[in-house]
Amino acid sequence: MNYIKRIFSQNKNEINYDKIDRSKKIEYKQGTIYDFLYESIQEFPDLTALEYYGKNISYKAFHKRIEKTAKSLKAIGVNEKDRVTICMPNLPEALIMFYAVNRIGAVASMIHPLASENEIEFYIDAASSKYILTVNMFAEKVIAAASRCNVQKIIVSDVSDSMFRIMKQAYGIYDVFRNIMYSSDSYNIKYNKTVIKWKDFYHLSSSYKGKLDYKGNANDEAVILYSGGTTGKPKGVCLSNLNFNALAQQCIYEFNEYKPGDSMLLILPIFHGFGIGVSTHTILTHGMKCVLVPRFIPEDFAKLIRRYKPVFLTGVPTMYEALIKNRESSNYLKCVKYCISGGDLLNKDLRTKVNDYLFNHGSSAQIRVGYGLTESTAACILTPNYYFKEGAIGIPMQDTKVKIVRPGTTKEVKNNRNGEICISGPTVMLGYLNEPEETANSLKIHEDGKVWLHTGDMGYKDKSGIIFFKSRIKRMIVTSGYNVYPLYMEKIIEGHPAVDKCVVVGIPHPYKQQVPVACIVLKDSFSQSPELIRDLKKYCEKSIAKYAMPYKYEFIKSVPKTIIGKINYKRLEDECTRKYS
Fold first, then answer.
1. pLDDT tens string 540-557
2. Same structural domain, 337 and 467
3. Phi-psi region for residue 245, left (φ > 0), alpha (ψ -120 to 50) or beta?
């Protein structure tokens, strides 16, 4: 009996989620991100905060490292409100620096270590950052990018800095990321007054004789994360102490079957809200352990779960696809109580397969879909337990409000009517970095006097209060005056037996303004042919209006992704425009 059959009886009666009692308010922390962490440090000093390749760092030891790093930051001249760039994978030094920066009232600007040199330069310049932490394998491009900015210090860590000595020797041959040597000697890094090693930086703490007496405010800017940039240049999203602390408190409000000492695999990257907010700050502020995984290797996923026995699994759909391909037959998932998917839509088939896999391998959990944006810190909507409906993203987190409005207005539409998803609550961003016009377009005061984030996503609310996602406004194609929604077309085309994946993009047209192009990845057993194109056209004609039919069918080997793993629509648009316009 599969998982869905097991829970079917629990899902017979629809619950009106709009009438769930949400009158009990959370008392949100009014201090800083560091202040909230410090409560865990005081309460659970001997529990493990971080585990990194077999080495445990207790909360007490974690605190000691944060304090020393904070003093080192002061020693090199970092002041309140200065922005410190952290360009790191999931390493202990990255999290130590994240909290140390907040400890002294500076701002952590989190960027992707796989970003290109020009992108890194853009991030540094946008944040006016004078101080950078990176890892040796990425240091050369970071140094090159920083040389064109007003950077005063570049701190370079080594992947082995927080390992046991025996592990350091082993990883001199077999590195954490595989096929990439991590020994410092493998890189052409010239250390000088500007470029210094982490260990040398860390020991500068002894030269700082002042006190760490910063007392921050909940609404102070604390972190800058960057949007994916799939439709243009990325934007810095300015987030406050309250944004992060509220997210952590809201997440724990949803999950009550945890206890201090439980663990989470920190696979999601820390430069993303889901990784640093949900998978890190939530865990560390409640006495749990983060098991640091610098790089996700699909074939190692089951091994990590067996070894570390996490209570929480958080990931994106591709991670769960990797999980269910594992042939493990034991009940190794018995430890897992919560399983969350975010970052992209989770289709019904994959959701069913994941739930069956969890059940068949000993877990009582069922996968829940989280919806969020960088602009809302991370998750702000979550599906209830035992809820299965295509397109459903759930109900708002505690103290978060969601309304559906007519696009371009602040007027709320009726239930089951499509409109723009708007969010109001304690996790909504302060605004975009150096982008007042973009901020004004996204954050609007409605008639109720509250600030609402206009997400740019289309959806609707049903009569029971469940929010459904339909499409992204920015991906709408206007052809001959008609609106065409790519997500709708993609779902139809992916129903064809030859199609593995489809992405629809709009390209310019001399008199229709735009026309849609269907970029198709075929299944292994199929190949491009005139007969297949004719069959695809015939298939589409059954479900797609004539004016919305694909102008061209472009066959691609794989769907290009951005550096944070989302579909790179811009690249496909550019390639198709060059080919067909």
1. 888 887 778 899 999 999
2. yes
3. alpha
pLDDT for res 175: 45
Three-state SS for 425? coil
Please give the Cα distance from 322 to 302 (Å, whole number). 9
Rounded distance between C-alpha atoms, residue 544 and residue 207, angstroms: 69
Least confident residue range of 317-321, 386-390, 449-453: 386-390
Q: Are 82 and 106 in contact (CB under 8 A)?
A: yes
Domain housing 543: 476-580
pLDDT given for residue 183 in this prediction: 41
Tell if the pTM clears 0.90, that is, is over it: no
Nearest to 198 by CA among 165, 166, 164, 153: 153
How far, in Å, CA of 521 to CA of 528, rounded? 10
- Mean per-residue pLDDT over the chain, rounded: 88
Domain end, chosen from 452, 471, 490, is at 471
- Using CA atoms, how far apart are residues 392 and 34, in angstroms rounded to an integer? 35
Helix (H) or strand (E) holding 195, with range, is strand 195-197
Residue 490 DSSP SS3: helix
Which tokens hold the place of 152?
């005063």
CA distance 64 to 58: 10
Domain count, the chain: 3
Supply the CATH number for residue 539's domain.
3.30.300.30
In a domain, 494, yes or no: yes
Q: What is the phi-psi region of residue 580: left when phi exceeds 0, alpha when psi lies from -120 to 50, beta otherwise?
A: alpha
Q: Are strands 289-292 and 48-52 parallel, antiparallel or unpaired?
A: parallel
Q: Are residues 322 and 439 located together in one domain of the fold?
A: yes
pLDDT digits (tens, 9 = 90+) for 83-126: 999 999 999 999 999 999 999 999 999 998 888 788 889 899 99
Residue 276 lies in a domain: no
